[in-house]
Amino acid sequence: MRFPPSLLDEIRVRLPLSDVVGRRVSWDRRKTQPARGDFWACCPFHQEKTPSFHVDDRRGRYKCFGCGASGDHFRFLTDTEGLSFPEAVERLAEQTGVALPKPDPQAEKREQRRASLAEICEMAARFFQAEFATSGGAAARDYCARRGLKGDTLKEFRFGFAPNGRDALKRHLVSRGVDEADMIEAGLVIKPDDGRASYDRFRNRLIIPIQDDRGRVVAFGGRTLDPDGQPKYLNSPETPLFHKGALVFNAHRAREPAFKSGQAIVAEGYMDAIAIWQAGFPAVVATLGTAFTEEQIARIWKLSAEPIICFDGDVAGVSAAHRALDRIAPVLRSGYSFNFVFLPDGKDPDDLIRAGGAPAFREALSGAKPLIDVLWEREASVAQIDTPERKAALEKRFEDIVRQIKDERVRRRYQLDIRLRLSNLFFEQSRAARGFARGQGRGRGAGQFTEPGLKDRLERPDGPMFGTERTLCGLCLKYPGLFERHVERVSQLPLHDELHGRFRDELCRVATELDSAQVSDFFDKLDERFYRILSEALDMPEAVETRSAPAEAVRARFQDLIQRLPVLRYDPPEDFVEHLFLHFLDVLETSALERELEQEMASADEDFDDAAWDRIKALTQDLSRRREECARDEQELAERGRKLRETGQSVVFAKAG
């Protein structure tokens, strides 16, 4: 239905935006001025300590100055509750008493038809539930007991049983006045082409109703109870109510807990989703036996910006993950992706939960991998790169995949990240081929440099800024989007350590000067010292061990980024990471300012005049201001980091019930 602008404006006028948003946030009393229609709160779309989320009742708009989220009454409901735009309009119209226009006759007729079919599906669901409780449903109840399903779970998901007779459901619906044609259209009954009598689609099966986003029963899934029965799982066919590629199972239940926790889980099937829900993870949905569709991905992203997909750890599970990756990659967009979990020992979620309970499943979730890591492992783990042609072939495979990403910003981030990984992979392979791998170097081996004294410096780092510089180098690699956004500032940053300076220079070259060049053409022309930090930041222990010093000693001196910044283990929000990144830039620039002031003071001892005094005063004032800003930022970051650590894990789920 199309809504005229005048109707939307009337809803906005009748209902202050602060009333809609206020159900989700607590207003900051110091900054908020209700009399002026000016409201401030911590953003509901990302974690923050200082309120940066602003609602202007006069304009009917909200905006977060931290993450950039913005919109009006309707956008707020679609983003926080997963409603469609028409659903958001209908809800607010009902609350404000605004009459909605009648749909056109054809649309109204289609909606009435869908409502009629939904009523028939509801009748069928009640029939299946009643049969589940009879003596005929004993096998179905026994199966549920073996799966460890509890009574509350069976009731919540409305488990049922389809009798083994040819037309038990059909006869029941006929007795309720339902036409055979309607049963067929609802997908409940099959009419043979040869003219024989119609019969029930579901027979001798455990039945799980499939509900739409409004909670209406629109289809069914049936699990055979016959050991030799095929197919094992049977879903309703496509109907005016049910489009398998558009729905996700359990979305109507998962919406609220997903918003509260900020995370959602995606299972491969509805039985796994039900087991996960029962274990205390209510923000769970499942696909319906199909490959991911663009519409399903969009629906899941309404629940969470970075949901976790669970796959069995066996070959079939990995293959399913790779198919999902290929479906998801083209529609990735800024701020939205998927994380992948491969369950241990080939278990499915139900197996894992029954063996180790919720703690075992929660531990598995903590090992979720970003989509880009799964993509990298899929392509790089099986690649042969011992010749220039094979290196070029691997690079082309990545280019072909990344080229499909429609969002230009995300595509650019993937290109830079993969180019850096390829550079490191090709470099390590080249070293190994020359005999430098794992301490077997000949001649000018790994870790030996042409410039005297640099090796000693690497092994005995000193200076107050070494750790800060090394951490910044790691952040540039782990978060290439941040690096690109602030590349000009990074490129001009004065660094104490020569290794870090060389690394920074080469990284900027890769991102700018060599942007259009093939990695296989330039990887061996970069300064070898660039790869020492690159390998460390990319968490590649194999690469670390190829250096001349023992791996343990190298790790003791040059810890991985997450060891330097433990807060990264808790998956902090993007604005927190950027705050950290900018803080390190500020600290290093402040350190450079201190050195500049020291040099100016030393020069003034020999040649002091008014101009020198003015420079010293200006530097002193600037330095004082920068120190205060750094101290304030450090305190705020420490407080936010403490709150992140208190959660104890990166994914926090509300307990079911």
UniProtKB/TrEMBL annotation:
Record note on cofactor: Binds 1 zinc ion per monomer.
Keyword set includes Cell cycle: no
Give the matching InterPro entries. Answer: DNA_primase_core_N_sf, DNA_primase_DnaG, DNA_primase_Znf_CHC2, DnaG_bac, DNAG_N, DnaG_primase, TOPRIM_DnaG_bac, TOPRIM_dom
The chain positions of domain Toprim read 262-344
Gene Ontology BP terms: DNA replication, synthesis of primer
Region: Disordered; residue ranges are 437-456
Cofactors, names only = Zn(2+)
Relay the domain remarks.
Contains an N-terminal zinc-binding domain, a central core domain that contains the primase activity, and a C-terminal DnaB-binding domain.
- Protein name, as recorded: DNA primase
